[in-house]
């Protein structure tokens, strides 16, 4: 009886108590939602973060547990950079993850025209450094890490919609060209070395955690401030651009599902609906009883050297093979973002009225 009791209590020598994921870009919108999702699945999550003069972990504060609380801290952060190959390999050897999600990037399309060298180094060559680190780690340690590469619908660029996995790429920015390179590096490592590596070609995905210099969040952030009287004008570029917008919280599930399949492959993730920036303005301003035409002005400085007119995904493969489909539609997404930013503006108004904060000289 004693020996049976010992067997029932002790896990097998090769048992893995929980899956381990390594996430680059963990402090971003997608990284925070993916971390929440993986923690709910019982994972231990390790995130790589860049050193910065200012803390940039705000999106993770609600799930952060001090690492001294070892029993509860299932998310841990480590300093590394996609421009530093040695740091990538070192953390792979230390953490020994089962899955790697490469979400890190200089991800702003317009900014990529301003800093093209840096964008290419992080987005394209950075992905190559991480792939090579995974490959060499696997060989040296007899392991088989599963790798996810965050692609982008921007890779399709000027190719007409609908865009699927077989649609040719025609990138229209340094960011998009760099993402194309990362995509093909991932395919090459899969074909050349048998690496379990997937490309997720995600169309635009937004949330209240979206960066404030992305057009959707720029709109809802300004709208909240306009509604409470902290701002009167919003300056935008091309409002006829059409995008396939979904909810980031839905899309991280698709990332995870890709790595749970028997064989690695590439998948488009999209809502299969396209809406213009003008439609986003219409829905958001109407929701709070305002007319966007009273507040929005077009500023040519926000036009890009080469525009992408229309992105609309064909996600039939992801629906069929992964069983994935979006849960949040366009209007629900817009209203979710407006609600959050209206509350943020109300809190900001309290501080401004009390003299603790400047309204930042917004027009």
UniProtKB/TrEMBL annotation:
The keyword Lyase applies. It comes from the Eukaryota. Belongs to the NAD(P)-dependent epimerase/dehydratase family. GDP-mannose 4,6-dehydratase subfamily. One of its GO terms (molecular function) is GDP-mannose 4,6-dehydratase activity. Catalyzes the conversion of GDP-D-mannose to GDP-4-dehydro-6-deoxy-D-mannose. It is an enzyme of class 4 (lyase). Its cofactor is NADP(+). The keyword Lyase applies. It catalyses: GDP-alpha-D-mannose = GDP-4-dehydro-alpha-D-rhamnose + H2O. Keywords: Lyase, NADP. Its EC number is 4.2.1.47. This is GDP-mannose 4,6-dehydratase. Pathway: Nucleotide-sugar biosynthesis; GDP-L-fucose biosynthesis via de novo pathway; GDP-L-fucose from GDP-alpha-D-mannose: step 1/2. Residues 22-337 form the NAD(P)-binding domain. Pfam families: GDP_Man_Dehyd. GO terms for biological process: 'de novo' GDP-L-fucose biosynthetic process. NCBIfam families: gmd (TIGR01472).
């Amino acid at each position: 009886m004693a020996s049976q009791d010992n067997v029932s209590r002790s896990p097998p020598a090769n048992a893995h108590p929980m899956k381990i994921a390594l996430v680059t870009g963990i402090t971003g919108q997608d990284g925070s939602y993916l971390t929440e999702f993986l923690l709910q699945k019982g994972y231990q999550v390790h995130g790589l973060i860049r050193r910065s003069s200012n803390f940039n972990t705000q999106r993770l504060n609600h799930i952060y547990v001090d690492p001294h609380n070892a029993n509860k801290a299932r998310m841990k952060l480590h300093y590394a950079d996609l421009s530093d190959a040695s740091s990538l390999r070192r953390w792979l050897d230390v953490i020994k993850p089962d899955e790697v999600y490469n979400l890190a990037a200089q991800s702003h399309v317009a900014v990529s025209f301003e800093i093209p060298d840096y964008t290419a180094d992080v987005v394209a060559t950075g992905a190559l450094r991480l792939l090579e680190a995974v490959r060499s780690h696997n060989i040296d340690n007899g392991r088989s890490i599963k790798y996810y590469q965050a692609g982008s619908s921007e890779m399709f660029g000027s190719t007409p919609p609908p865009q699927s996995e077989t649609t040719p790429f025609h990138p229209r920015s340094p960011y998009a060209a760099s993402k194309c390179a990362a995509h093909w590096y991932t395919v090459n490592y899969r074909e050349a070395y048998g690496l379990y590596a997937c490309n997720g070609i995600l169309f635009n995905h937004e949330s209240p955690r979206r960066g404030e210099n992305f057009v959707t969040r720029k709109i809802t952030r300004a709208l909240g401030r306009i509604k409470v009287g902290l701002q009167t004008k919003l300056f935008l570029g091309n409002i006829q651009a059409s995008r396939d917008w979904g909810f980031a919280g839905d899309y991280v599930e698709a990332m995870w599902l890709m790595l749970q399949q028997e064989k690695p492959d590439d998948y488009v993730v999209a809502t299969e609906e396209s809406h213009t920036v003008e439609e986003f303005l219409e829905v958001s301003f109407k929701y709070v009883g305002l007319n966007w035409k009273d507040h929005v002005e077009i500023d040519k400085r926000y036009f890009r050297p080469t525009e992408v007119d229309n992105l609309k995904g064909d996600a039939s493969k992801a629906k069929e093979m992964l069983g994935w489909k979006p849960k949040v539609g366009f209007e629900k997404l817009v209203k979710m973002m407006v609600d959050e930013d209206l509350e943020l503006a109300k809190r900001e108004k309290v501080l401004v009225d009390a003299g603790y904060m400047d309204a930042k000289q917004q027009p």
